[in-house]
């Protein structure tokens, strides 16, 4: 019989535990990876100020910009809880 206080871990929580990774490190790395950089701002600006279908086809092969939105503490706790 399972205790009611003991909750099953999510696959993500089990993965972090097996690789000995602290959840705070994941949040820090997410913030560093998703931070907007000047090239991302240029891509967004160009997409916003595009005119005509010719430039749309031309810009479709460009690199995708970062989101600028790192993982939050609430999202991390929800992912760890399952």
| Mean pLDDT across every amino acid position | 84
Largest sheet: none
Q: Low-confidence spans: pLDDT under 50, at least 5 residues?
A: none
* Overall SS class: mainly alpha
Instruction: Specify the number of helices.
Output: 5
Please report the total strand number as a whole number.
0
Return the domain count: 1
Task: Please give a structural write-up.
With 82 residues, this protein is mostly helical. The chain has one domain. Helix content is 59%, strand content 0%. It is built from 5 helices and no strands. It starts with 10 loop residues before the first helix and ends with a helix.
What keywords describe this structure?
59% helix
Summarize the structure.
59% of the residues lie in helices and 0% in strands. With 82 residues, it is mainly α. The two termini are 21 Å apart.
Strand and helix layout:
Layout: H1 11-18, H2 23-34, H3 38-48, H4 52-59, H5 73-81
């Amino acid at each position: 019989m399972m205790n009611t206080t003991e909750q099953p871990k999510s696959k993500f929580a089990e993965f972090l535990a097996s690789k000995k990774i602290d959840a705070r490190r994941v949040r820090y790395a997410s913030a560093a990876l998703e931070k907007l950089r000047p090239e991302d701002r240029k891509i967004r600006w160009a997409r916003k100020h595009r005119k005509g279908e010719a430039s749309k086809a031309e810009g479709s092969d460009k690199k995708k910009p970062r989101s600028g939105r790192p993982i939050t503490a609430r999202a991390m706790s929800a992912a760890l809880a399952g």
